[in-house]
Amino acid sequence: MTIRESDIQIEACKLFAEAAEAQEEGRLIAAEALYRVAAELGYPLAMNNLAILLEDVMQPSRPDEAVYWLKRAVHGGYEGAAWNLAMRQRQTGRRRWYIHWLRIAASLGSEDAGPALATATTRDDTWWALEGVDPPPFVKGAAAWPA
After folding, report:
1. What share of the chain is helix, strand, coil (3-state, %, to 5)?
2. What is the pLDDT at residue 146?
3. Which of 8, 22, 46, 64 is disulfide-compatible with 39, CB 3.0–4.6 A?
4. CA distances (Å), 91 to each of 18, 45, 98, in order?
5. How far, in Å, CA of 25 to CA of 144, rounded?
């Protein structure tokens, strides 16, 4: 019996849905396990969600593992993961890497990346500004927010 790639992706999609349901119900260990299997099967959205779970939800946080999964999701063509990597760089004030990941997100089709990239590549001190998004932690005081 030959297993087709489409069958693998269908199974990964089912596992992803189960993982999302487990996460919503607060069953985080189960969610992590299900996301991980779907991610190992090559499902980029599962890779992205696993990364978010590992870094933002689970305690203790596992940021290095989260970055690994985000990069795999980008390699799989998921623009949301590139955006998430860009936002990680924005939060820490790493402009060069912020621009790098925004460019990748834009090349993968992210609609938000283009406008963010235009602001990020300006030469002023507001390269981090995003409409409707609070300034990152390294920006001190409301006066630093562009008008």
Report:
1. 65, 0, 30
2. 55
3. 46
4. 31, 22, 9
5. 40
- Report the pLDDT averaged over residues 111-132: 90
Nearest in space to 51 (alpha carbons), one of 62, 42, 43 = 62
Q: Are 50 and 63 in contact (CB under 8 A)?
A: no
What pTM does this model have?
0.88
**Which candidate, 56, 3, 134, 60, places its Cα nearest to that of 70?**
56
pLDDT digits (tens, 9 = 90+) for 59-90: 999 999 999 999 999 999 999 999 999 999 99
Give the domains, in start order, of the chain with CATH numbers.
1-76 (1.25.40), 79-130 (no CATH)
Q: State the burial class of residue 96 (Cβ atoms within 10 Å of its Cβ: 0-12, 13-18, 19+).
A: exposed
Residue 124: CB atoms within 10 A of its CB come to 8
As a whole number of angstroms, the distance between CA 92 and CA 35 comes to 27
